[in-house]
Amino acid sequence: MTPIPLSLYIHIPWCVKKCPYCDFNSHQITDDLPEKAYVQALLKDLEAELPAIWGRRLESIFIGGGTPSVFSAEAINTLLSGLRALLPLRPSMEITMEANPGTFEQARFKAYREAGINRLSIGVQSFNAEHLTVLGRIHDNKEAIQATRIAKQAGFDNFNIDLMFGLPKQSTQQALNDLQQAIDCQPSHISWYQLTLEPNTLFHHSPPARLPNNDALWEIQQQGQALLEQAGFLQYEVSAYAKNNQRSQHNMNYWEFGDYVGIGAGAHGKISSPDGRIQRYSKYRQPKQYMQQVAKGDARSSEEQLLKDNLPFEFMLNALRLKQGVAIHLFEERTYLAFSQIEKRLKKAVQKGLIEDSHQTIKTSPQGWDFLNDTVESFI
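Below the sequence we write its predicted structure tokens.
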């Protein structure tokens, strides 16, 4: 049996300021950051997860948040050194850290690079001053551009820019200007996605005025994708565009239904067992409670074994987000189910024109891509 790839997600939950659109587990900094205590909690949390992944090698690491770059380079170095002592890592593996322009310092980012971080994901969201204010961002246009320069000067030749469209009062030209500015910063990857009003956010409770309508959003998306393609950024996932095939290795593992260990406040994990069981779990969300629970050896707040009947939908929910689809054999390898479990549903989706007729890959048709939710629901 082909081993299922294993990644590690690390959550650092603090931010300088909570953004009104953010539904991630993030907490505004009010006191001194407990860097040392939290790093030690992360390593102890990982130790508790080792029995379930013993003998397996990590393929990628992603440090997300929150804003991980509020942590010092010394703290990140201690964390990565501790990880290397606990787990075998693939040589030259991708190690990504999220960062915001408002927390950039050139010396700090050189030290991050020296500690082993080799990919950054920079949360720009917009280069427009008015839109940055509405989004509650703490950086301005100049800082956003400077952040990408600092990243390159620090040795990061592989970095992502996070960018939103569909912002309050945003015109098509403003969205395209944002995208062109991101392209001009010469990243290797751009994550370009529509602003959504998620539950449990300030924007959901108090929606901003004048969001673009569906026709405007469609125009932005069509023109924006053409601009990205012209600049050499090829779309490989719903909101991900890579230049020179520098796709996010970590996110590819999610979309191909690989395994991942999650450590940190509010982190999630998915682990497959040789006997065919697939388990999801989550960690306590509040940082203080999380550290207390780690000390007790019980950081998981929930556990769930995925039911076999639900696995086709779970797999397709991720895999069909990939523009080129996935190899058919991955379904059997990652779900422990026979291909016959989805064969009838797959044929019906092909007949409806949602899935391409292929004996090698599971891939949406152009129509299925445009109506992705309907395509995924074919496998419920």
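The first strand starts at residue 6 and ends at 12.
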